[in-house]
Amino acid sequence: MRKRRGEKKTRDKRSVKETAQIDEEQQWTPSLGSWAIALAIGACLLHGMHLAALFENDRFFSHLSPLERELSFRTEMGLYYSYYKRIVESPSLLGGVASILHDNLTEYPDTINTLQRFNLYPEVCLSVMFRQYRWCLDLLGMSGMKCFSITRGDGSKVEACNGMGDHMYFYVLCVVLCISRYGRPHVLLCIVCCSLYPGMGDHMYFYVHMIFGLNGLLASGIALLGTFVSGSVWGGVLSVTTFFYNHGQSTRVMWTPPLRESFAMPLLFLQTLILSFIIRKRSCSLVVWTSLVLATVAFLLPWQFSQFTLLTQVLSVLVVHCLRLISSQKFLRILLAYTLAFAVNVVLQFGNNMLLTSFLPSCLLSCLIVGLLSSTSHLLKFRPLIMVVEVSVVIVGSVLMKMGVAAILGAKEDEHIISILLSKFTSYHDFHTQLYTCAAEFDFLPLSYVLDLTWTLLLPMSVVSMAIITVRVVKHIFGKEETGHSDDVMATPPGDLAVQVYHLMQTVAYVVMATLIMRLKLFLSPQLAVVAGLLPSLLRASGLSRSQYKWMVAGLLVCSSLKGWHNFHLQHSVIGEYNNPEGEQLALWIRDHTPETAVFAGTMPTMATVLLTTGRPIVNHPHYETASLRSEFRGCGLVHDFLTAGIEPTMSTPYLVGSR
C-alpha cells in the first residue's frame, strides 16, 4: 500500500511538473516576442504585396486613364473617394476640409456634414499625408510620377501615370515608416529615398496603396493574436497560413479598397490583441489600458458597422465574467475603457444619431450595472443560474434603454437593419429590404463557404479547438476546475481558460453574423484562423510531447497546403482589365454638355460615379444609413420608374437631371 501511495505521489509530482513546464512554454517570453514580431513583419510585407498584385492583375490599374480609374470605384467606393479627391484638389487643406463639413453636393438641396455621416476620417488623414508629400516633392523639384500614353484600340489615346512597378509595396512601406516614425525633420530624407521609386505622386495611386499598406497589418494582427493566445509561435504560423490559404473568404480589400471595412478590419485584430492581453494578465499598466481606448477609437471611427462588432465583444467579455474567469474590477475597467472610446467617437463624429441610438451604449450601461451588482451573486449558489440571470438582465436592459433613447431622439437610423433581419425569418419585405436582399452578399451563408474552409482544414481545426474549450468550460461550470474564489479569481486560470473562452464566444458571435449575412464572413474567417492556431497548444496541454507537438503542427500545415496553395495560386491566375466605355461616355457627356449647376438623380451606383467624375450635385447616393435619405430615395425611385428622362438618346444609362 505504501508503495502504491508512493507511486501515486510520484505520478502527481510528475504531472504537476509537466503542467508547469507546459504553462511556462506558453508564457509570452522575450524570445517568443521576438519570433512573433518577425512573423508579424513578414506577414505584413507578404500581405501588402499580395493585395497590390491581385488589384493590378484584376484591373490593369497601372495602364488606366485617370477617368477609368475613377470609374472603377463603383457605388460607395466612388462616393468615399470623391471626398478624398476634393480635399486633395482643393487650393488649401482647410478649404477642402470645410467643403466636406458643409457639403451641398451630396444630398442636394440639403447641406450636410459628411464627416458626421460617412466616417471619412481616413480620407482626411490620407489627404493630409498626400498634400504634405506633394509639398516636399515640389520643394525638391520632383514630380513623383512617371507618365506615358496608352493606345486603346478604337478608342482615343489616354495618359496614365504610375511607375512603382516591382518596388510598389517597398515604396509604400518606406513612406509609412519614415513619416510616421521619424516625423517632419526627416521628411526630406524620406522623400529623397522614396523618390527612387516614382509613382506615389499620383493621388489615386497614393490612396490605393496606402490602403494596401494598412491592410498588411491585418495579417500581422492575426499572426500576433494567434501567437499570443496559443503561447507558441507555431500557433501564429498556423493562424496566418490558414488566413492566406482562405484569403478569398477573409477579405475583399483587393477588389474594393475604399470601403470602410478596408480601414477598420486591420485595426480590429490589433484591438482584439490588446483586449486578449488584458483578459489573460492578472494586472495591466495604464499604458495598456490607454492602448485599448485608443485602438477602440481607431476601430470605431472609420466604419459605422464597428459598433455592432464591439457589441459582440462586450457580450463575449460578459460571458467570461459570468464564468468568474476575470474579476469584477477588471470587467468594469474594460467596460469603462469602451465607454470612454465610445464617448470620444460620439464627439469626433459630431453626435452621429446612428451611434447614439445603437445597442452599444445601452449594452455598456447594462453590463456596468451587472458588474457593480456582481458582489451579491453569491446569494445564488448554482453557477448556471447566475449566468442566466446576469445575461438576462443585460439583454432586457439593453433593449429597453435602446428603445427609450431612440424614442426620445426620434431616430430611425437603424430601422432598415431590423427590417433586413425580419425579412430573413418571415415573409416581410418592403422597398428598402428588397434593395439589400437582392444582393448576394446579404444572403445567407452558402454551403460552398463551409466546403472551401473544410478542404483547407481551417474549419475542422477550428471546430476541434472550440470543442476542447467547450469541454473545459463545462467542467469549470460544474465545479471540476474550482479556482477557490467566489468573485475575484485568477486572471490566468489553467490553460489560459479566460482568453480561450473569450475567443470561443467571439467566434460563436461571428458565426451567427456570417450565417445571417454572407458579407460578414469577413469577420468569421480571420477569427477561425486565430482559433485554429489554438489547436496544437490545446492538444499539447493534453499530454503531447514536444516532438509530437512539432510533428503535429507540420502535419497540419502540409495537409492544409494541399488545397490552400491551390487557392493562393488561383487568386493570382485571375487576369483582367477594367473597361467601361458607356460610363466613360456618360461622364464626358455630362462634363461637356451640362452646366456645373445641373443636379442629378438616378440609380445609386450611377450617382456616386457622377459625383466623383463630374463634381455635379446629386440628390441620392449609395450610403443608405439615414431614414431621411431612404425616404427621399424611395421617392426618386418611383419617379425614375415612371418618368425616366434621357437627355441624350444614345446614353445607355437612364438618369434624371434638373437645374438650379
UniProtKB/TrEMBL annotation:
PANTHER family: C-MANNOSYLTRANSFERASE DPY19L1 (PTHR31488:SF1), DPY-19-LIKE 1, LIKE (H. SAPIENS) (PTHR31488)
Keyword Glycosyltransferase among record annotations: yes
Key word Nucleotide-binding present: no
GO CC annotations, alphabetized: nuclear inner membrane
Compartments reported by the entry: Membrane
Location (main, coarse): membrane
Name the record gives this protein: Probable C-mannosyltransferase DPY19L1
Similarity annotation: Belongs to the dpy-19 family.
Membrane topology label: Multi-pass membrane protein
InterPro entries in alphabetical order: Dpy-19/Dpy-19-like
Superkingdom field: Eukaryota
GO molecular function: mannosyltransferase activity
Keywords linked to the UniProt accession: Glycosyltransferase, Membrane, Transferase, Transmembrane, Transmembrane helix
TM region positions: 204-229, 263-279, 286-304, 310-326, 331-348, 354-373, 385-409, 453-474
